[in-house]
Amino acid sequence: MSDDLFNLKAGYVNFKNPIALAPMGGITDSDFANKHAADAGLVILGGYNLDEKTQQAAADMVARGREEFVSDDPFEHIEQEINAVGSGPSVAVNVRSTDPEPLVKAARIAKDAGAILELDAHCRQEEMTSIGAGQALLKDIPRLTEFVKKIKETGVVLSVKVRGNVVNDIELVKELESAGADILHLDAMMEGAGADLRLIKNVRDSTSMFLICNNSVTDFGTAKNMFSRGADMVSVARGVMDNPALIGQLVKNVTMLHEDMGWYNAPKHVCRGEGDLRGLTFCCLPVKQCPVHGKIEKLGFTAQEFADLKMDFAKGTMLEYGDSTCFGSLVWCCKISKPCFLRDGVLETLGLSDAEYMRLKKELADHILEKSKSR
């Protein structure tokens, strides 16, 4: 498998595939990563506690039976851990602090190593939240964004891990992106079991940050549901402890999907109410009442402007063809997973594979979203 098959990157960091090992306090160190996640595109070590308050909080958590990382010199430990991970995956370090200066110091270490720094705004243990660390940062967005701005002054690629459905998620996402965060690591938690797929879709429609999604990823079906709502990457936590081969299985399955389909995280169709804005690439000509109009309006286009935009893109590409399709061009045709003898007949005549067709559709989706930013 080529390391650039997925063409995934965030800043100076490239990912060979869209599967990550999520951080678990006291568990995900370099030894665990090398044993369970050698095939991953990203391993996130930690969370590591950087200042006196978070170190004490972690010690208190250990005293009541939780696993946490406590170190006499967390900065030396972080540097050693980054360097100890095998050459396969890219590396991030998840960190906690009540003060920005230790975060800045850790960011410099990560940047020098070509790694990512991940700010933990996720931990909900009382020992951490009571001192203003972890999930407590979500309820103090000015302080959280100030941390982000100070960290980004180092030039490090910055991820922020957050827990969903705690505050106004869309407001939070927009503030983090405006402050300069590169990656959003979203635990799409909701009451009950499973991930909040609607939240993932809504977050995808609200940001251009690289999006890692997490929560209850135990098989490829759950991962695929996240991908189809807009996740660029999914991360695995407890699932890998129950099934040590899980990451390897996910990598194999997503690679096969991408090779066959050409777009591993292709969105759902907008007309079904499940597709994010990228799904506009599969929409037919907007001549009838349909959810497409709401999506078009959200991007600031009229129906005619949207139609012109898609047709202009199609010129000179294989999407321009398709006289025998419903609207006379492949540019208006649906996702390859939806059966359509008209579309498939055109693809066969053109000698265009399913994967090539979907790659063109992805280029169109990117084009639509890019054009909307200039409005």
Automatic annotation (TrEMBL):
Pfam families linked to this entry: Dus
PANTHER family per UniProt: DUS-LIKE FMN-BINDING DOMAIN-CONTAINING PROTEIN, TRNA-DIHYDROURIDINE SYNTHASE
Gene3D superfamilies: Aldolase class I (3.20.20.70)
Name under which the protein is recorded: Methanogenesis marker 9 domain-containing protein
Organism of derivation: Methanolobus zinderi
Coiled-coil region list: none
Record lineage: Archaea, Methanobacteriati, Methanobacteriota, Stenosarchaea group, Methanomicrobia
Domain of life: Archaea
Domain DUS-like FMN-binding: 22-253
CDD domains referenced in this protein's UniProt entry, alphabetically: arch_FMN
InterPro entries with a match to the protein in the record: Aldolase_TIM (IPR013785), DUS-like_FMN-bd (IPR035587), Methan_mark_9 (IPR017671), MJ0144_FMN (IPR037347)
NCBIfam families with a match to the protein in the record: methan_mark_9
